[in-house]
Amino acid sequence: MGGEITAHEIARRAGVGIGTFYRRVGTLEALLKAVLGEVLGEIVAKGEEGLANPDPWAGFTTFALSYIHLRNELCDVNKRLGDVLDHSRAELRDRIQLLVERAQQAGMMRTDVTWEDVAFLMVAASSAGPYTLGLHAGARQWDRNLHVILDGLRSPDPSALPGEPPSLAP
After folding, report:
1. Which of 12, 15, 114, 137 is in Cβ range 3.0-4.6 Å of 141 for a Cys bridge?
2. Which PROSITE patterns does this chain map to (predicted)?
3. What is the distance of C-alpha 4 from the center of its chain?
């Protein structure tokens, strides 16, 4: 949606009056929470699909592409609500950890990268703005970014990583 999400804008786009919106939905926060929960559930399901793939690298990369696409849909809703779906986020963290560990155990992903690193890298791939340094991003810049990141995660012969990996916030 972009920018501030309002009940009036949602009602207008749905072709209903604001009174009808509130009778059917209750509150804007309830609607946004339901949308956020649905998209997070879809991301978790993509993690399950990745884990079910017999090829650990293909399972991970397919999940990563889906994750970035769906995550971009969440940005406005998540900003509006704040951190309200901790359980779904924990499930998502578990799927990312399992996918990364599986690819590492199969020798397909560098082992000096943690699943927490991977979570940050996937976000970095999706956060490309439309402009940087006077350059215009292509329509699939996030996809290009992710492929560069995936190539950097793949084994063998990675360079040594500086610093410490990220950790869960207290």
Report:
1. 137
2. HTH_TETR_2
3. 21
CA distance 167 to 153: 19
In a domain, 24, yes or no: no
Report how far apart, in Å, the C-alpha atoms of 36 and of each of 68, 89, 117 are. Answer: 15, 11, 24
Give this prediction's pTM: 0.69
pLDDT of 18 higher than 50: yes
Question: How many Cβ atoms from other residues are within 10 Å of residue 52's Cβ?
Answer: 8
In a domain, 17, yes or no: no
Instruction: Please check the confidence at residue 73 and state whether its pLDDT lies above 80.
Output: no
99 within 8 A of 63, measured Cβ to Cβ: yes
What type of residue is 10?
A: I
Does residue 168 lie in a domain region? no
